[in-house]
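Open question from group meeting: does this chain pack into something compact, or does most of it stay loose? Before anyone orders reagents, we agreed to write out a predicted structure and look at it together. Recording both the input and the output here so the notebook holds the full record.
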Amino acid sequence: MKRLTAVVMSAVILFSCLAVPVYGAGKAENACSAACDCGFSPMVYVAGLGSAKIYSNYGTENEKLIFRPGTDSVTDIVTKLLPAVLRLIITRDYDGFCDALIPALNDMLGDMAMDDNGDSKPNVTALESGLPTDGTHGVNSDYYFGYDFRTDPLVTADKLNAYIERVKEITGHEKVNIRASSMGGTIATAYLKQYGHGNVDSIVFQCSPILGTQVAGELLTKKVVVDKDAVVRYAVQALPELNNDFVEKSLKALIWLLDKTGVLGGLADVVNRLVPKLIDRVYDEFLMPVLGKMPGIWAFVTDDLYEQTKAEVLDPVKNASLIERLDEYHYGVQQSLAEIFSSAKEDGVRVLILASYNMQRTPLVESYKNSSDATVDTKYASAGATVALLGETLGEGYVQKVNDGHNHVSADNIIDASTCILPENTWFVKDMLHCVLHEGIRDFYRWFYEGEEDYTVFTNAKYPQFLQNDPENRRLIPIE
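Structure tokens returned:
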């Protein structure tokens, strides 16, 4: 349901949020005090975007939840806008429509905006994770670290460091395991840059935009496109999350009917004609004021669009302090991953990077054909893989780009992992929705965490580099 809500929100505000999974939040297994010899470093789960609720005027009679808005909020705004939509159809009064749309969006989300330096408004509160107090821990339990997604990842890294130090203190361990999910990967890499890896035993990056995601820079620079087929694929692949077979089949049938009768194609054409009429005001009066100065969102901008996006969105004088902060993360962390990872691995930190592919990514921007996990482009989540566009292959006779003596090309000829920063430590799961887990994926993680050596994609025949997701039977199948 979260992802279906995100589809609606994307259509309304031209932005899709990264989903937040919860895994292993059950009761911990082993209680330890002083120095612990249980043999398993405690697990710190660095959650994804939306892990902390954000309020305006928290604790007062005017308290308001502004993120993440629930289904009721989305339904309310759509209901309010229906009359304006009807007037637009009849009168073609685009400014009149914007006069209704933009205040409604700002009323719902406007308080999330940051100031010119990238800092939050004083009346806005994010309910981030407090320092833990329970020292019990085990392989099937996590210490959950949630944070304000809007803020500078390097500032959040300071809070993660304090959190990790407290976990070490209350569990009696010298190191922790980390599982960084989605945006949590940007926080974890910022932490490694700021504090090194002396506290880390092993780390998993799960569907993380560690090199960004194309949709961020393209949305911020108005590269908006609505492709009918992409929208259909995106909607259909989200339906299983409803966990209702009858509803899923009914909605699939309805989408199929609307597609075959040309209704969806017609709607896509209408939207694409509307975008040029509305985009400037929506960007100038809503999207840029709300998202344009969030350091957390800027952490998603990929290197190929970073300088262009800065030039188009930020004022070099008014936003000078913000730009300095953004550069520190972009060049010091995102574009220094090879150095960060190499240093960690040389000192014995065990690393697993998991990326998914073959899913339709957010269908609102020019790069909608990038293979993904439905949220993060595979080439960025994998830290550098060469990836065929959705529905295509690398081509007949393709030869991997880097010859390290091992084969890193998937049997379906879609992925060349030889160009990854860590080709030996990067796994790919075909048809896995962004951070949506089942017991087969959890078993894979347990195998990795419980090991003592530097496992690679060649260590275990059960878990080769390329795996097919089988959610119905809760398993991963080697792609051969």
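Observations to bring back to the group:
The longest helix spans residues 263-291.
Residues 140 and 239 are 28 Å apart (CA to CA).
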